[in-house]
# Entry
Amino acid sequence: QVQLVESGGGLVQAGGSLRLSCAASGRTFGDYKMGWFRQPAGSEREFVAAISGSGAIRRYADSVKDRFTISRDNTKNTAYLQMNSLKPEDTAAYYCAAKTSVGVTVSALDYDFWGQGTQVTVSS
# Structure
């Protein structure tokens, strides 16, 4: 069992940056693959980025590649999502999630534990 708490969301102008954090408690953090997902108002939850337990493998949605960076610090039990060059279409509630099954995957169905979400709003 792991508990996840996101922070770092807020209101930012287009072109700006934010860094989201996901603090984990419970089992050994390095056992979990971590993912970030987002859900715009009235839309389905979508994959943003994911990272392996060691941090060696990272995957990104095409829409955020080259703008967002996922990372983790296993000594601090925290995962991060650095978001640069933000666009209004990045506006959404952002969720971190954890999984123990094999693979750094992009489907929300593969993730077992979820945080409560943090809102990111990008103004034009």
